[in-house]
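Rather than argue in generalities, we reproduce a single protein record, letters for residues, whole numbers for local backbone shapes, just as it appears below:
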Amino acid sequence: MPTAVIAEDEPLLREGLRESLAALWPELRICAEAEDGLQALRVVDAHRPDVVFLDIHMPGLSGMEVARQISQRCHVVFVTAYDQHAIEAFEQGAVDYVMKPLSTARLATSVSRIRKRIEETPHNIEPVLQQLGPAAGRERAYLRWITASQGANLKLITVDEICYFQADHKYTMVATVSADALIRKPIKELVEELDPAMFWQIHRSTVINANAVAGLKRDMKGRLHVSFKQRPETLPVSESYAGLFRQM
């Protein structure tokens, strides 16, 4: 019976990966899970799995650092937020990949590839890591999804779904087309992790998705307000951020 380790610091994604693997590869036994890079190394040493599903960005040690140390000991599937710039490195065949947010179709492809070579000696993936390193440096990995609270439930929300973020006391409200949710991360930290080409700060407490904006309105005092394509409310633009819209 083939064995695997899942190394992923997001509990919701870790659970989703485990459940999807159970459906796609029933005979695969998940022998351990890890929340950070150091723990990943420990469980790989302890369990000697056939496959490791490895998040590239983890606390402690990054997935790339872990991969370097377990190269040729087990097959590696990177769980990654990288996009097209890294695909060429993955497609060389020494490692496989699953994109975040989790795609069942892509995971099925990865499972099919791994099953075919499960009995083979794992490749030396150092050449892939060397190619991946410069690629990662050329393009920053911005947030592509968040885990937010909706009542008693946790929900995975891709950034494309978000209309805006707004500070709400100790939390930050995440407004999508259909619902609102809460996260604990403050606006100041979010601004540093979001793609500035897509997300614009319009107030010290508000960040909007530029793709969700329908237009601008001025009130009786000449102050700008942003309206949205699929939300009824308008949000004020602070004077210090009004320059974003001068050419619109």
